[in-house]
Amino acid sequence: MTHYNRLSEVSYNEEIASWRFRVKIHRIYPFYSYVTGSGPHWTYILADEDGTKMEMTIYGRYEDRFRGLEKQEGKWVEIFRIFRCK
User: Fold this and answer.
1) What region holds the Replication protein A 70 kDa DNA-binding subunit B/D first OB fold domain (predicted)?
2) Fewest beta carbons less than 10 Å away: which of 3, 10, 43, 47?
3) 11/63 Cα distance (integer angstroms)
C-alpha cells in the first residue's frame, strides 16, 4: 500500500526530498497575470482525505509538468513531487 503525505504536513524542511499526495481537485480556475500579461495559468483547490484544503497555482516553466491536470476537476489524483537537494 502506498503511503501518502497529508496536506497538513506541508512545511519547509530541507531534509524532505519528496512529497506524495492523494488529493481531490475541488475547483479549477484560470489565472491571468495583470503584471506580466501572461496566462492562463491554472489555480487548483485541493483537499486530502482528512479534509485539509490547499490552493496551488501552476505557472511558468512548471506548466508542462502538470499538463492535463485541469481536466481532472472532481476526481481523486496522485501528485508526486521530487525536490532537488543542494
Assistant:
1) 4-81
2) 3
3) 22
For the segment 17-41, the average pLDDT, to the nearest whole number, is: 83
The CA distance from 56 to 42, in Å, is 8
Expressed in percent and rounded to 5, the helix, strand and coil fractions of the chain are 15, 40, 45
Amino acid, res. 50: D
pTM above 0.85, yes or no: no
- Smallest CA-to-CA distance from 42 within 79, 71, 76 is with 71
Q: Which of 29, 23, 41, 25 is nearest to 73 (CA)?
A: 25
The residues with which 43 forms a beta bridge, in sequence order, are 29, 57
